[in-house]
Write a structure and sequence with these properties.
- By secondary structure, the protein is mainly α.
- It folds into two domains: 81 residues, Winged helix-like DNA-binding domain superfamily/Winged helix DNA-binding domain (Arc Repressor Mutant, subunit A, Orthogonal Bundle), CATH 1.10.10; 68 residues.
- The protein is 74% helix and 7% strand.
- It has eight helices and three strands, in the order H-H-E-H-H-E-E-H-H-H-H.
- Helix 5 runs antiparallel to helix 6.
- The longest helix is centred in the middle third of the chain and has 29 residues.
- The radius of gyration is 23 Å and the shape is extended.
- Pfam families: MarR_2.
Length: 184
């Protein structure tokens, strides 16, 4: 399969983004290609199109499967496995966020919980624990908020994101009204 320059540009960018999402460049490229193709791709097609070894393709597919981002398709009469994205773009974003939470936030929260429960040995540790408690509380809030977002439909999430800074303005207006009414 020959990639057009636009498709190649997107696939290469997905490779760069992959490292920011938590997997390597090659896996990002593989996933980027799978996302924009109308039909699932074989390991051979992925290997030849991206000019990577079959071994790298195999390891990349296993990694993407561990993230629950790809699914295997079978074509009647063909023994090869074909791979495509598992779900919609919204579902992909939710899975990446969920996996990053499991791999990054959860271990950090566990460490912080254990550390802030210990009795501080001195003032320096007491100060450090207070800062760790603040980090813990922030991460807990983010984790709970993200969990609530994941229960929303894509339509509701899209509406919420479009509200953007408007929500902040409404909250500022509410605070001002409350402040004005308490002065009376």
């Amino acid at each position: 399969m020959q990639m057009t320059s636009k498709i190649e540009s997107f696939v290469m960018h997905c490779g760069e983004m992959g490292s920011r999402w938590g997997f390597n460049r090659t896996i990002g490229q593989m996933y980027g290609l799978m996302i924009i193709m109308p039909e699932p791709l074989s390991a051979t097609t992925l290997s030849e199109t991206l000019n990577i070894s079959r071994g790298n393709v195999s390891m990349g597919i296993k990694e993407l499967q561990s993230w629950r981002l790809v699914q295997v398709h079978h074509i009647p009469g063909d023994r090869k496995d074909y791979y495509g994205p598992a779900g919609s773009i919204w579902e992909m974003a939710q899975r990446v966020f969920e996996e990053r939470r499991k791999r990054e936030m959860d271990p950090t929260l566990s460490l912080l919980r254990a550390t802030i429960l210990d009795e501080p040995a001195n003032e320096q540790e007491a100060y450090a624990q207070e800062k760790m408690r603040e980090i813990h509380d922030l991460l807990e809030t983010i984790t709970h908020w993200a969990a609530e977002l994941q229960t929303m439909s894509p339509e509701k999430l899209n509406t919420l994101m479009k509200l953007g800074a408007g929500v902040g303005k409404v909250l500022d207006m509410k605070a001002k009204l409350l402040s004005d009414s308490s002065r009376k």
